[in-house]
Recover the amino acids of this structure.
């Protein structure tokens, strides 16, 4: 069964085990739209079975939040109008130039396309990797577009994020819901998380312009307004401390001095993500 956010918005929960992101469903009077394709044919099929049970208007559109394999490797299972920004489209061409047997995955790792964790997840999700071929979208856009599903609109927008340079967010104003994909997360560099403040804080300003109550983050499920504001605050505090301190140890002491509290694991993670070591 899918999880309900509002009468017109449902989602399938994320699962960390094989890095499955949230898959979103927006229900219009005339058509439905899904957010992200799934991390494998199996993931996509499981979502499709749940949608079929609901007896909805036809699913006509699929929008990708970015190119990462866990959001896109289920694309071939969907026979509909698939949409991504033009940068995502370019990255997906790269995935089509790779083979997915064990040896080829190791070669792709050497080129920095996958890491050990993602290779383990791909092996766990995709049984027939010898014949697996990722698919690209059939419609790409630059900037923004609106999709009318009948009685409900999806505002699709390309956004600069610290996670990738090809992020897309989706806003459904009638339901005050914003799908953020992975754009609130950092980027993995040499095995650790990194936030580029020059990309992060302008993006937060853009996200704050939306009148949203529900924020769908791909690897957390749904955040309330309070939760997302608290997340911004943690990032702001961590960035401020990281700017004033020259080591993680000093940063932790500064946090304790300011708040008379041990920093949480999340705060330590953010301090490290702003380059305190
Ligand atoms: Fe991602």
């Amino acid at each position: 069964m899918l999880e309900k956010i509002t009468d017109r918005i449902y989602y399938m929960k994320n699962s960390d085990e094989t890095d499955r992101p949230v898959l979103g469903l927006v229900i219009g009077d005339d058509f439905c739209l899904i957010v992200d394709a799934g991390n494998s044919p199996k993931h996509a099929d499981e979502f499709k079975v749940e949608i079929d049970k609901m007896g909805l208007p036809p699913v006509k559109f699929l929008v990708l939040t970015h190119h990462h394999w866990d959001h896109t490797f289920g694309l071939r299972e969907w026979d509909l109008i698939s949409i991504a920004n033009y940068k995502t489209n370019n990255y997906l061409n790269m995935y089509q130039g790779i083979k997915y047997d064990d040896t080829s995955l190791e070669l792709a790792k050497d080129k920095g396309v996958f890491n050990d964790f993602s290779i383990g997840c791909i092996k766990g999700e995709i049984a027939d990797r010898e014949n697996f071929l990722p698919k690209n979208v059939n419609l790409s856009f630059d900037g923004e577009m609106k999709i009318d599903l009948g009685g409900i609109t999806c505002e699709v927008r390309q956004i600069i994020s610290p996670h990738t340079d090809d992020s897309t967010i989706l806003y459904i104003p009638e339901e005050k819901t914003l799908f953020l994909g992975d754009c609130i997360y950092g980027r993995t560099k040499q095995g650790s998380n990194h936030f580029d403040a020059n990309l992060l804080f302008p993006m937060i300003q853009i996200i704050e312009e939306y009148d949203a109550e529900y924020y769908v983050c791909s690897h957390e499920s749904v955040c309330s307004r309070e939760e997302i504001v608290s997340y911004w605050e943690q990032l702001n505090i961590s960035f401020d401390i990281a700017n004033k301190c020259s080591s993680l140890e000093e940063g932790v002491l500064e946090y304790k001095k300011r708040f008379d509290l041990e920093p949480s694991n999340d705060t330590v993670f953010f301090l490290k993500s702003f380059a305190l070591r």
Notes: Residues 159 and 206 are 9 Å apart (CA to CA). The domain at 3-98+134-225 is CATH 3.60.15.10 (Metallo-beta-lactamase; Chain A).
